[in-house]
Amino acid sequence: MFRGFLMCLVMLAVSCAASAQSFLLQTAYYDDSSGRLTVDEVMAQSFTVFDGMLSEGYTDSVIWLRIRVKASDKPLYLTVKPHFLDTLTLYTSTAVPGVWSTQVAGDRVHNQGDERLNESHIFEIEPRQETTYYLRVKTTSTAMIEVQVLTFSDWYVQNMRTQSFQVPFIGLMFAILLWATSDFIVRREALVGWFVAVQVMQILFSLALMGYLAVFLPHSFNLDLLTSVIIQGSIAVTMLFHRMLIRPFQPSRWAVRVLDFLIFLAAIEITLILFGFPRQGLQLGTINLLFFIPTLLWLGYSTKVDAVPGRIALRVAYNALALALAIVIMPLLGWGQSVDFYINALTTQGVVSAIIMGVFLYRRSSEMEKSAIADQLKLERVEQGLRDHQLKLDEQRQFMDMLSHELKTPISVIQLTLDTLSFPDKKRVRLERALRTMSEVIDRCRLSTQIDEQRLSVVNESFDLAEMVEEVTDACLEPGKVDLDVDSVMVDSDRQLLSVVIHNLVDNAIKYSPATARVKVELGTATGRFARGTSLTVTNKFLGNQPPDSRAIFEKYVRGPTATGLSGSGLGLHLCRRLVQMLGGSLTCQVLDHQIVFTLWLPDSA
């Protein structure tokens, strides 16, 4: 479908270039490098005959055309294309030798009438016999010139054909601009905003090229300067657009640096034009555009990431753009035999570029919209999962609160009953230890739930840590197995939470060490990673020959290899580390010489 559309464009462009009945006998040119020759002096020079369109590229010279026209009994239109030529002076001989009548037109001349509504400059002539005219052309833009001599009716038909080719193209470019603008308003994406800017500049360039821009401007306006700025501005904005478009694909750094340099040159070109050096600015702009073509291909083929809508789509688009630019730029540099098709090709290139990048951005927008919908669905599923998880946590918390209440009460009753009964000492110790283990498991589960739900708050107070250690040791399972080496140390922390930590560490050391082994508890000062503080170490020998995994020992529900047959929930050490982190400290574990050492560190109070 797209290939058929392009064929239609080519056929329409060729039809626009089809010649009507021409009264042009011969065209020849002379390059006046000095720019000071008069028409009489030029007549004596040697002219070079050419057919079709003359393409001399950028030059400081004045180009003189010798135009021989057939005789006609009707007025004729001598038309000169393209519209962006600066100053044209047509010399017509009179009955008085050496005296010439002149007509002036051009991009810098304030003209009236139909000339403001078409792509060519028009001179009305009346050659009653075969006549030779001389046309002086001075322009800062590329010297690409085509002359035709037609009757009014043939000119009118040709002009209508040209407009039937150009106006739909302008309409299509406006349609793409409207789509891009609406997409930008909805999604506020910077890349689409740059594409809108590119389309605006391309439309302005096409209007200036076809002579339609003059319709919207006063006669006193410097149309030549505006056209030059539009041309170079279009190049700069296009490069900036591709700079942003290519970024997600991660092309070669050197390719990006070359593109950045070309963008810098485009800024220099606009500056030259604004400061009175239009020819130099335009010529540099053409060379810049020439280097932009291979840079565009380099960017497309050096990409490392397959971003939306894909590297293949990007490379196809860049190949088509490079081809369109190459076709247009050759006559601007004076290369090859130019024909009228190249003027229409300038408009065609703008439309084709707009279609290619419009389709590319449409695909990109569609893919991103699909991705956004998929992400939204994933987000909704995640949110639903979080709600379900929170519901389960609420149910778990309610169950744990209920279980704690329902079990704590009977345990307390059993303990009170046990105090009133007479039992042998060994049986009493066993019963009390079992009740204590059950109570500790319940407390640990409740604490774990409170920590997970962030319902536990820290209340700091100043107290003697040595006294707390002694109190906790006296209340442990077998205080006689513990060797204390503690001196008075004042700390500022949560007394209740810290007592839970120390109690768990000492009880664990007693429970998981051999029956005859001693547990050593030491208290002192130590420097942490960033500050000084207080250090508490609990050291004991471990059961069996296989040491516990010091990296996994603080994980939830993890128990050591020698814990089989011993009571426990796998929550104690996990709770200890979580509580110490809440207190701003650290808890570490080391295995040294068949001993396991837990080190609790708390920072000094500020």
Automatic annotation (TrEMBL):
Signal sequence range: 1-20
Annotated SMART domains: HATPase_c, HisKA
Keywords: Membrane, Phosphoprotein, Signal, Transmembrane, Transmembrane helix
Annotated TM spans: 167-186, 193-215, 221-242, 254-275, 281-300, 312-335, 341-362
Annotated InterPro entries: 7TMR_DISM_rcpt_extracell_dom1, 7TMR_DISM_rcpt_extracell_dom2, HATPase_C_sf, HATPase_dom, His_kinase_dom, HisK_dim/P_dom, HisK_dim/P_sf
Entry EC number(s): 2.7.13.3
Domain Histidine kinase, chain residue ranges per copy: 402-606
Domain of life: Bacteria
Keyword Zinc listed: no
EC class of the enzyme, as a word: transferase
The keyword Transmembrane is annotated on this UniProt entry: yes
GO MF annotation terms: phosphorelay sensor kinase activity
Catalytic activity, as annotated: ATP + protein L-histidine = ADP + protein N-phospho-L-histidine
Official protein name in the record: histidine kinase
Source organism: Orrella marina
Taxonomic lineage: Bacteria, Pseudomonadati, Pseudomonadota, Betaproteobacteria, Burkholderiales
